[in-house]
Amino acid sequence: MVLLILLMGYEFNLLAQISEGLIWAIHGQILCGDFNHNGWNDLVFRSTWPDNPTIDTMNAIQYYEHIGNNNYVLKDTIVFPMYYGAAPWDVGYVDNDNRLDLICDGQLPGEDTVKIIVFEPKSYYQYPNMIVGKYPFAGLRPIMQLSIQDLDRDSKKEIHGVSDASGYWRFAFENTGNNQCSLVWKDTLPYTHGCYQVPAAFSDFDRDGKMEIATMACRYGDTTDTNLVFFIENTGDNTFQVTAVETIFRLGGNIWDVWGGEDLDGNGFPEVYLSICLIPGYEIYFWLYKVEAIGEDDYEVTLLDSVMSCGFPEYRSCNGDIDGDQLPELIWSTGTDIYVYKYKGGEYQRVWHYDNWHQQGNRYAMCTVYDLNNNGWNELVVSGGDRTLIFEIDTTSIYAEERKSGICRHSFLDPPRPNPARGRIRIGFGLSEKSEASISLYDPVGRVVLNRDLGILPSGYHQRELRLSVPSGIYFLRLETDRKTFQRKVVVYD
């Protein structure tokens, strides 16, 4: 059963383009954040190094920083000699030294094994570019899909990943001290012959109070055409076991992407999404599936959509709130095409389609969502081949009729204007029903620096102006109503 309505209602603006990109899906993720703590957000990915022919391609980690007005500049690069390199997969605080850790896999000069490589900044205001940890696993074979988690909830961060040495292994290294990690769990995944990558999603999918890893197994080209989705549940301190397996038969096709962990349909159970592709020739067929719990260790598989594409399937999908209603959208990448879905009224509605191949001549598209320019709206970042594209939703394409008529079917908070702001900001918001409302401004450590009680307001569209008498910096504007809370970033300057 396909739960899909085609409703091409959203429009996006291309804000910026960087002339480099993440080429292969096995070469890491696109990571976003303020990596050097200077108030400006950054992009980091493994990319080509076109200006130096003596350096092998796809072996430089590059940090691009947003410097205002949707402009990005290359700020730092970690360069590796030919035939060596590292791929960034995740960023966060693995230990407790208050320095950001960049988690990569790769092979370093003078070493004969692929390892997990952890980079940290030399000081708080620098980029993570100093190696502070190297952890080998399973010999020469690649280590992929690294993620920082705390699945056993013991307040010790784990680095979870997969290696394809003599079969596919899932494993976890746990933090044991400052820049120290130890292997605490490993287990082989059956039936994964021929898998190009083995991605995973993390959440308490069946809401039993135990975190799970949702991952895949397949046998490309096998006559049984079997795709398996494994749910591996934490059962104690660094112990895991498979508690559910779902089978998806798709003639000749195999799973290439797994993502999710959010509750897009609002029923209380986070979903897992799968992309299956079949490559009979030049044309490639794709199927989008949802796997969702219907009880403890009990799951249901639903086909959502199917499309035909072309080119090699190098892609990575994601979920994220790109229309500002605090509910994430489903973003499905097939490499040559990107599809955005909104769950409304019991249906998945396709609200945007971008033809990456005919628009950009690009068959690769790894996606992520982040508010890089700090204007309160998350951007959709699409990186692949020799470019990275940064899109933002055209705010006039959503809730336009509700603003114009003043009759609101949704509650929402518009981005404050102007942003960055000096002296005062204008705020617009919609209420779908009569509600008490208040507006507050918080500093980065969570202190309230401004509060205005708006009283009981009728449903409809409202506008207010706030005077700002706070120091320069990044703040968070929060609108609280009876049913929902909305938040936007605000940059204030003197």
Automatic annotation (TrEMBL):
It comes from the Bacteria. InterPro entries: FG-GAP, Integrin_alpha_N, Secre_tail. The keyword Signal applies. SUPFAM superfamilies: Integrin alpha N-terminal domain. Signal peptide: none annotated. The keyword Signal applies. Keywords: Signal. Pfam families: FG-GAP_3 (PF13517), Por_Secre_tail (PF18962). Residues 418-492 form the Secretion system C-terminal sorting domain. This is Secretion system C-terminal sorting domain-containing protein. It comes from candidate division WOR-3 bacterium.
